[in-house]
Design goal:
heterodimer, A: 6-stranded parallel β-sheet, 6-stranded parallel β-sheet, 23 helices, 37% helix, B: 163 residues, Alpha-Beta Plaits, 2 domains, 9 strands, binds flavin-adenine dinucleotide, binds thiamine diphosphate
Amino acid sequence: MQLMGAEILFECLGQEKVDVIFGYPGGAVIDIYHALPQYPIEHILVRHEQAAVHAADGYARATGKVGVSLVTSGPGATNTVTGIATAYMDSIPLVVITGQVPMPLIGNDAFQEVDIIGITRSCTKHNYLVRDINDLASTLQKAFYLARTGRPGPVLVDIPKDILAAKTQYKPITTPVKMRSYNPTYTPHPGQIRRAFKELSKAKRPLFYVGGGVITSNATEELSWLIDNCHIPVTATLMGLGAYPTHKPLWLGMLGMHGTFAANTAVSTADVIVAVGARFDDRVTGKISAFAPQAKIIHVDIDPTSIQKNVTVSIPVVADCKEALQAIKKEAENNKDICWEEKQNEWLQDTVSWKKEHPFKYIDDEKIIKPQYVLEELQKLIPEDTIIATEVGQNQMWAAQFLQFFHPRHFLTSGGLGTMGYGLPAAMGAQKAFPNRLVVNVAGDGSIQMNIQELGTLMAYKLPVKILILNNGVLGMVRQWQELFYKKNYSQTNIAESQPDFVKLAEAYGAGGYRITEKSALRETLQKALDDPRAAIIDVQICPHENVYPMVPPGKALTEMLLI
Amino acid sequence: MRHVLSVLVEDEPGVLSRVSALFSGRGFNITSLNVAPTLEAQVSHMTITTRGDEQIIEQIIKQLRKLVTVIKVVDITAVTAVERELVLLKVQAGDENRAEILRIVDIFRCKVVDVSVDELSIEVTGTGEKLDALIKLMEKFGVKELVRSGVCALKRSIQADKV
Ligand SMILES: Cc1cc2nc3c(=O)[nH]c(=O)nc-3n(C[C@H](O)[C@H](O)[C@H](O)COP(=O)(O)OP(=O)(O)OC[C@H]3O[C@@H](n4cnc5c(N)ncnc54)[C@H](O)[C@@H]3O)c2cc1C
Ligand SMILES: Cc1ncc(C[n+]2csc(CCOP(=O)(O)OP(=O)(O)O)c2C)c(N)n1
């Protein structure tokens, strides 16, 4: 069949079972947009290309599928860079398709030409410039394959306009991708698993430290089985929230800079730590030389570069989390005589008392609305399958600390890059994937203004995302650092003065607008807003100088955390 | 410590910049980098010499392997049999120095590849140390131009190992 490049693109997207793409048109991709109506793929027209990528990212995190966005060359392509870097840092599978100027013009500083391959080389898993229409289908197949396999990540495919408009004979590819230079290891080495299990079975103070990889590999069931049957306490990174239900007794809370006393004390005293799909980020370890000083570390990760990068590991296991945890589970099933609870008894008691002594807490006020209180109230009103997205800063940390996470893929947050402006478009992508579930974006008044234009997209596609602004009038997280470590020199962190009226702003878009200034009205107004069938902003005026605690000061050990 | 890495890559546009961007982006050190085609079409070979402690070298190797276009990475530091570099240099050679320069050329088994009234162009291959020594000697006559290839290395073969 003779098809145009643009048509081949849609044939390939169909083969990859893509049902929705997030994009924005322009000259270089106009052929793609011309072909679009013939195909059963839904296109969500965003208001800014950065949002197209974050929305595809939110869609990917919530569903586990590859998210797809489509933009034009030049400024369209450069606008995607923050979105791509965000997905890259958090290992999220995306395929980003950019238009490019026609092949003969490449390198000529042509109109709307940028070297997006060069620009995104260090923030994509891989990228391709398609130079021949006959390579288009195989390149797209490889792009999806690379995005979703191994350690997932964003892959960019740059397609020149003349290739989109050219015609060629097209036959769907029916053979799977094979690349000799790319072969991720999924199955763990049996010897390493035996060694790991042996350490665990001897441990007096074992601990699971789990991260985003557990969610990526859909390994939460295996993880829960091991924790519950071997009575091993568990902590997770920000990216691992939802890997293990946060209301269960062995859950110690998130660890790291804003983690719980129990989790940080546990890593600092454990004798064996099983790190699963987590990458020992500096927000997690604090001062690296003082991290987990007593522990033998078993590290399961599909990416060999994650292992031994920041800490010395006793037993490296290069594998998919799910397969590795299954293998450890099998060992446990074959060794039924181990009395886990008994050998770890003292440790279990310690961790329980740490949890009791220092849960996440805050000093409530009779009148002033505390953000933590808002989130506790929100938790009471939302169903268990609610998807929470966050912006970045204090709002993000409070959401991580004061909401409950029962399931994986219910919490969407930019961890590695910490991208303000991520939450709203990510929530939009998740709402598109799950139109019947409640999706709430927990926001700060600073971050929300970085992609606020997407209110337009929410309204256009009737995506009823609820935006909960914890409005403190400041760039709170930066202000917190200034207060604690920079002599209260509040340089350029007050944004209260020129703040828009968020209620009117919502209304201008046709969305619901709610403002909460009185603590007594909180629950009722919150409920009303959640019941609004439209997208809505809930502007909650919170205490302007509330800080996030605990906090491990930068450069300090986890045991030196500041408590409230 | 100095390490020599032998790297096989898919010969695609941009592969060199992927490798060099990896080094600069992650703050790794490159002493020299050499690329050439192999006997197999579509595959190129790179010899990279680099420096770092054990942990850094381990990261460099893992990060190289992670690049989608990299087929194979071997650290041949411990098993290199031969290591050679090529230098081409142009040295000032008036009548008063010409004889001495030619004597050095002889000792170092260099080749004179171009001659003019007051200059000699010299080609030499050898280990880095030999080349450094030669360059030092030539400097006193005045080196006008110099190009250096970077290291090419060959792994010792297994039979030779046993002998
Ligand atoms: C303001 C702010 C404050 C923060 N504070 C904290 C904090 O207090 N505590 C905290 O934990 N984080 C915090 N973070 C987040 C932090 O920056 C990191 O993003 C996070 O800790 C990384 O989580 P992770 O280790 O789970 O890694 P991820 O980035 O989720 O990486 C996943 C790892 O799993 C591996 N992997 C992927 N797929 C698989 C698979 N199928 N099988 C096996 N392995 C796989 C990957 O190779 C990678 O090594 C904060 C961020 C911000 C913006
Ligand atoms: C795009 C971007 N720019 C700057 C920062 C640095 N930064 C981190 S948190 C923060 C303040 C966020 O303020 P706000 O959204 O109001 O949230 P709050 O901390 O007050 O809850 C800033 C500026 C960032 N993370 N992302």
